[in-house]
Amino acid sequence: MADKQQPHPKKAGPRPPFRQPQQEYPGSEAQMDPRPDFGEESYEGRGLLKDRAAIITGGDSGIGRAVAVAFAREGADIVISYLNEHEDAEETARVVREAGRAAELLPGDIGTPEHCREIVERTIALFGRLDVLVNNAAFQMSYDHITEIPPEEIEHAFRTNIVAMFWLCQAAIPHMKPGSTIVNSTSVQAYDPTPSLMHYAATKAAIVNFTKALAQQLIDDGIRVNAVAPGPVWTPLIPSTFNEDKIREFGKNDPMARPAQPAELAPAYVFLATDESRFVNGEVLGVTGGRPLA
Asked: Is 200 a catalytic residue?
């Protein structure tokens, strides 16, 4: 029997122009047009995370949702941390539970150390263990000039995108045993920043540095730390960041002339979270559709 023909990577998925109107931050996946593909129909697990417990921040939608679905189908129970997008979070939990795994929803702001500790404490109380921490939640906003960025928003971006990673890791690491993994979401913006995303890009560069330093620090504890650097991805961050003209053309000028779908990112997180990558540590895996990491 002939193998099923695979889609051409450059032609897969929706392509610009998109019809999506701009949304208020943090955006809603339920209201996106077209809806992102998070792998509900396509991802098949192999038991690579059987009976492990994972925390995924920003797990309600976008990349976080796709990772939650993939992890569940690999056999993991999931704590889904998110800000306040309850409809999106319930949809993610539905698919995780349909995979036969537990899904716990924890809304709240990771920009406070108290909430970061609560996420970890709830995970241990529920599952008695913590095997994978995915630091994925992020804040992004666009400005034409540095002088337009409100000072409080610069601080908010850093607290959400990188400082929260310190707090979550401080709370999580004492509970993580050898073989556990931490996977951080950085971005191609860390290497090739878009000027209008200056404060977001700066936090993503900090995550690269954080990942490499923490990986060295934890290697004797048997805990690996890596990161994924996505290129353009069709998630709620996009309609909540850009105006309608930019949304309409999002991803058009990248090598594949389209953004990734979240489902196309999830396998990279699975690889870095599982024993398949047991000799990979302190690395940044680019999933950019051909846009080089410098």
From this structure: yes
